[in-house]
Write a structure and sequence with these properties.
It is built from 7 helices and 6 strands. It is of the alpha+beta class. The protein has a domain of 120 residues: Aspartate Aminotransferase, domain 1 (Alpha-Beta Complex).
């Protein structure tokens, strides 16, 4: 994704990417941090491996015989197998993102006559088209809608439940009320979107949405 020709992830001092299995570029699990600040890069390298000053590979190559621990670090090292997967997936990323955009545009066109809201459909910049979210009409019961989609063989999801309503945050932030977020959180549903969908499967989802909307009216 990019905005004004500048890729997302490089706007601030640090950019973070997830390579979880449902992401545009996946290694199964893991992620990546970008920074153009050498002081942060040095700290990140230290923290990713238990705060150790040298790694086993460094010592094997004769760069050191022992190590020190300078900080309370973590085990955040991505291994060679996942890295190799990532390198190969990176070669396919532009093509796959273009396909995601193609299927998103087909969804928008085929669902345009329905009383749905399409977040980000007209946003600025170049989208990565990671998800395809829709906001249901107020008169539609979301659970019944999602159950109807499931009955028709179509998996849906929610992205995302409002963060401030999770128990961890409610216990720390004095029952914050965010009306717009909560309304969107109650009505959002994510439809399937992946590069190899093809037009036939997109149209199958579209027809399932039409049926589910009729069945889920309150």
């Amino acid at each position: 994704a990019s905005l004004n020709g500048k890729s997302l992830g490089v706007w601030g001092d640090v950019g973070c990417f997830s390579f979880f299995s449902n992401k545009n570029l996946s290694t199964g699990e893991g992620g990546m941090i970008l920074t153009n600040r050498e002081d942060l890069a040095e700290k990140i390298r230290l923290l990713r491996s238990h705060g150790m000053t040298t790694l086993t590979y460094d010592r094997h190559r004769g760069h050191a015989f022992s190590y020190d621990v300078l900080a309370l670090g973590y085990n955040y090292r991505i291994d060679e197998i996942h890295s190799a997967l990532g390198i190969e997936q990176l070669k396919k990323l532009s093509r796959n993102n273009a396909l995601r955009k193609k299927w998103s545009e087909l969804y928008w066109r085929e669902l345009a006559d329905l009383p749905l809201i399409f977040p980000f459909a007209k946003s600025n910049g170049q989208s990565a088209c990671h998800l395809f979210p829709v906001i249901l009409p107020r008169a539609v019961n979301r659970e019944r809608f999602m159950q109807s989609m499931k009955d028709q063989g179509v998996q849906t999801s929610i992205h995302y439940p409002p963060i401030h309503q999770f128990s961890y945050y409610r216990s720390r932030y004095n029952q914050v009320v965010l009306q717009n977020t909560e309304q969107a959180g109650l009505r959002e549903v994510t439809l399937p979107l992946y590069p190899t969908m093809g037009e036939e499967k997109v149209m199958l989802v579209v027809e399932a949405v039409r049926t589910a909307l009729r069945k889920a009216q309150d």
